[in-house]
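ok so for the tutorial part 2 we go from a plain amino acid sequence to predicted structure tokens. step 1 is just haveing the sequence, like this:
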Amino acid sequence: MKIIEIKNLYKTYEDNSVPVHAVNGVDLSIEEGEFTAIVGPSGSGKTTLLNIVGGLDNATEGSVFIDGVDISKLSSRKMTDFRMHKIGFVFQAYNLIPVLTAKENVEFVMHLQGEKKAKRDARASELLKAVGLGTMMDRRPSKLSGGQQQRVAVARALASKPKFVLADEPTANLDSKSTENLLDIMEQLNKEEKITFIFSTHDQRVVNKARRVVMLEDGKIKSDLNKNQG
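step 2 — the prediction. this is what the tokens look like for a chain of 230 residues:
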């Protein structure tokens, strides 16, 4: 089942009156349960593509359908609500709220969704245990290592039971051991809970784990390798 369908997508910027196509005519479908890495050199359009799919940026032309909904047609308010319920984000910079504990950070989206405290509490505890932080729920981000903070970010991304998770360079600030642990956790969640993960990455370790690798160059898809098929 297709969870994301991208059709004839363009994102054009003006640079000294010269149009620059950050995303240049991309057509791409993502099936439910995929573990996909989007790769390419700096400036190839990886992050721009993820931001458009996540509703954080608008395309100049083309369509992005998520669960059959053309998100370009949604108002700003409806897009915010759609994003909150359908999409999980894991950012390179973690983006945790410093004054909240690990558990409170994971609960935050559920709080915005209006979930009751008992349900938030149970879900956050379950997820933090799943990412190996069951004993660190009451620690604030400043008392966690980079790898631990990124695992909190993964738990937070999954808290709302999204359709898929977008991870923009999630291992960029992590050492080898933390990267390995994080990727193992995400791979396990992908296989056991069928959560769809889409990474933008330069990290060969992420590429090695991915079952599909889409390469961008100058905003265009240069190659699309499904390891399960070849």
